[in-house]
Amino acid sequence: MVPVGACVALGAVLFAIGLVGFLGRRNIILMLVSIEIMLNAINVTLAAFSQHLHDSRGQIVALFVIAVAAAEAAVGLGLLLALARTRPGMKVEQLTELKW
Amino acid sequence: MPIIAGPIAFYYLAAASIASAVLAVTRRNPIHSMLWVLALFLHVAGIFLLAGAEFLAAVQVILYAGAILVFYLFFLMLLDLPGETAEARFGAHWPLCAAAGFGFAALAWFARDPGLVPTAEHAAATDPSPGSLSAVGHALFTQFTLPFEIASLILLAAIVGAVVVAKRRAGA
After folding, report:
1. Which of chain B's residues have a Cβ under 8 Å away from the Cβ of A30?
2. d(Cα B17, Cα B169) in Å, to the nearest integer?
3. Which residue of A has its CA nearest to B23?
4. What mean pLDDT is predicted for residues B23-33?
5. Averaged over B130-150, what is the pLDDT?
6. Residue B128 pLDDT > 70, yes or no?
7. pLDDT at B127 over 80
8. Which ipTM was obtained for this model?
9. Range of the structural domain that residue B141 is part of
10. Considering Cα of B47, then B105, then B23, then B28, what sign does the dihedral take?
C-alpha cells in the first residue's frame, strides 16, 4: 500500500523537474526528454489514484498516456531529423524564423 | 509483499527517481542525461509495482525504457552532436525557469488535500488487488474498446507522419 499523498507529491516534484528541463535546456532533444519526464509524473499520479480509489480505469488512462508519449517521440524525432539536415546544431535559440 | 518493506521501498524509489530526474535534467552530456532518464523510468516502474499496477510496470519497462528511450538514444548517437559538452546547458533565462519550477511545486504544495491520506477503514475496505492484470485487461477490451482502437490509429498515423516528415525530398 503506497501512501497516496506521498505519491502525488512525487508526481508533482517530477513534473516540476521536467518543467524546468523543458523551459531551460538549450538542446531540443533534451527538451523532448523533459516532456517524457513530465508524462511519467502524470502516470505516477494516475497509478496512485487508481490504487487509492480501487478503480483500474486510472491505469488504462495511463496506458493511453504512454501511447501518446510514443507517438510524440516518433513525430518529434522525425521533425528533428528533418531539421538537422538544414542546420547543424540542436539549439533551440537558433530557430528564430517564426519569431516576431 | 511484506508490510514493512512497502514504505521503505516506496521512499527509496521516490528518492532515487527524484535524484535521477534532477541529474537527467542537469547533466552536460546528453547521453548521460538519457542514461539517468533510464534510471528514472526503472524506478518509476518499481513505484507502479508498489501501487499495484503490475501491467503498467511491465509496459513502463518494455515500452518506455525499452523502446522509446532506446529510440532517443539511437537518435542522439545518429546526430553525433559535436561540442555539445563544451557549451552552456541552460539558456540565458534559466533563473526564470527555476522560478517556474519552484512556483509549480509551491502551487502543488498549497493545493494538496490532507484528506487524501488513506484511513484505516479505507485501507481495509475493498479487495486488496483492484488493479490486477485481469481487471485491467477486462476493462480495456470491454469498456475502453473504442479508445483502445483510436490509440492504435493514432500510433499508426504518428508512424506514417514521422516517415513523411523525415523523408528526404526527391528534389533536394
Report:
1. 25, 30, 33
2. 42
3. A17
4. 89
5. 85
6. no
7. no
8. 0.91
9. 129-172
10. positive
Q: A98 in a domain, yes or no?
A: no
Q: Cα B66 to the chain's mean position, in Å? A: 12
- Report yes or no: A27 and A90 within 8 Å, Cβ to Cβ: yes
Is A99 among the domain residues?
A: no
Share of chain B above pLDDT 70, in %: 81
Q: Within this chain, do residues B74 and B140 fall inside the same structural domain, yes or no? A: no
Minimal Cα–Cα distance from B7 to chain A, Å?
A: 7
What is the extent of the structural domain holding A40?
A: 4-93
Is B126's pLDDT higher than 70? no
Q: Are residues B53 and B99 in the same domain?
A: yes
Nearest to B51 by CA among A39, A55, A48, A9: A48
CA separation for the pair B15, B11 (Å, rounded): 6
- Mutation to test the B interface, candidates A33, A42, A80, A96, most B Cβ within 10 Å: A33
Which of B12, B32, B56 would best serve as a mutation to test chain A binding (most A beta carbons within 10 A)?
Answer: B56
Q: Is residue B57's pLDDT more than 80?
A: yes
Return the SS3 of A95. Answer: coil
> Quick check: B24 and A33 CB within 8 A?
yes
